[in-house]
Specification:
352 residues; alpha/beta; Aspartate Aminotransferase, domain 2; Aspartate Aminotransferase, domain 1; 2 domains; globular; binds 4'-deoxy-4'-aminopyridoxal-5'-phosphate
Length: 352
């Protein structure tokens, strides 16, 4: 189906003249800068944070592009993935008129962003094995559907969504298909970033919060066509990533091997944790995971949850979430943390 960005953008976004910052108007690096009402002095602690940062983070994008196999102009960086999630909704969905499709159980922010923006969210549940019911999703599309949100690997179930289903949506839906790959580094599946040049309606989200271990920096990545990225740049707050964040990220990008090693360690621990959990009688089922967490069905999830809290071990109760009856979501920790979890669960089995 033909995709037209003009058709899916809200009309006022299409015609919006964005804020033009001093750093937009003069991009040279050398000179006496008297254009941005900055303080000419570095702060008392000697740190030079007195200048506004690059609004488009080009140094980072140049470095990140070859790592991700995309062009710098196909990258948007935000304050966590939550920033591009919200910007995508705001760019495309007119409140009380347009809608988007969510596939529960899934990451909660798509729904919250819909509510913040007063946009309807049509829910088409995943199947019992957490796969997309393509026919039902296609049938749920209305002339006002602007975005379909796919989370793969999916949170909270952990599995990857079958690629054919995502291709079917990309091919048969004329709005945006957003594939949230926050957990992609923990999966053997290739990223959908490799499909960007083929599908103009594809948007891929990733994050530095998981595999890279940088959750506190708040850094989300959005990959899409150059024209979609231009729209996000147009509506973002001018300096959405601080200079300090940019500096820390540039440094972190020199250490891809460290990230890969952390991922390998977490994957080994995921396998070990899974085997250990399965040996416990109170564990009914562990869902296959391509992420850094396991969705685990327990005999008595709320009692287990409470016992773990009493022992100062905090997992996520997903037992009230659609298709996740009796389930706790457990993030893979360090070897030591996982050992304590297993030991504590064995003790629960004795006291219960
Ligand atoms: N997407 C998914 C699927 C997630 O599970 C999470 C975090 N729980 C995020 C995005 C948020 O990532 P960020 O820290 O970049 O906002």
């Amino acid at each position: 189906m033909a995709f037209s960005l003009e058709k899916i953008l809200r009309p006022h976004i299409l015609s919006l003249v964005p804020y033009s910052s001093a750093r937009d108007e003069y991009t040279g690096k050398e000179g006496i800068f008297l254009d941005a009402n900055e303080n000419p002095y570095a702060a008392a602690n000697g740190q030079a944070w007195n200048r506004y940062p690059d609004p488009y983070q080009w140094a980072i994008k140049e470095k990140l592009a070859p790592i991700k196999g995309v062009r710098p102009s196909q990258i948007f960086l935000g304050n966590g993935s939550d920033e591009p999630i919200d910007l995508l909704v705001r760019a495309t969905c007119t409140p009380r008129e347009d809608n988007m499709i969510l596939l529960p159980p899934t990451y909660g922010m798509y729904q919250v962003s819909a509510e913040i923006n007063d946009v309807a969210a049509i829910k088409v549940p995943l199947t019992s094995d957490f796969q997309i019911d393509t026919e039902k999703v296609l049938a749920a599309i209305t002339p006002h559907t602007k975005i379909i949100w796919v989370c793969s690997p999916n949170n909270p179930s952990g599995n990857s969504v079958k690629r054919e289903a995502i291709y079917a949506l990309l091919e048969q839906f004329s709005g945006l298909v957003v594939v949230d790959e926050a957990y992609i580094d923990f999966s053997d599946e290739p990223s959908f970033t490799g499909e960007l040049d083929k599908y103009p309606n594809l948007v891929v989200l990733q994050t530095f919060s998981k595999a890279w271990g940088l959750a506190s920096l708040r850094l989300g990545m959005c990959f899409a066509s150059e024209e979609i990225i231009k729209v996000l740049n147009k509506i973002k707050p001018p300096y959405n990533l601080s200079g300090a964040t940019q500096q820390l990220l540039l440094e972190a990008l020199n250490h891809v091997e460290t990230k890969n090693k952390m991922v390998r360690d977490i994957l080994a621990e995921r396998a070990r944790l899974g085997t250990n959990l399965l040996s416990l009688a109170l564990v009914k089922k562990i869902y296959p995971s391509d992420a850094n967490f396991l969705l685990v069905a327990f005999e008595n999830a709320s009692a287990v949850m409470q016992y773990l809290i009493d022992q100062k071990i905090i997992v996520r109760d997903r037992s009230k979430v659609l298709l996740c009856d009796g389930c706790l979501r457990i993030t893979v920790g360090t070897t030591e943390e996982n050992d304590i979890l297993i030991k504590t669960l064995k003790e629960f089995a004795v006291v219960a």
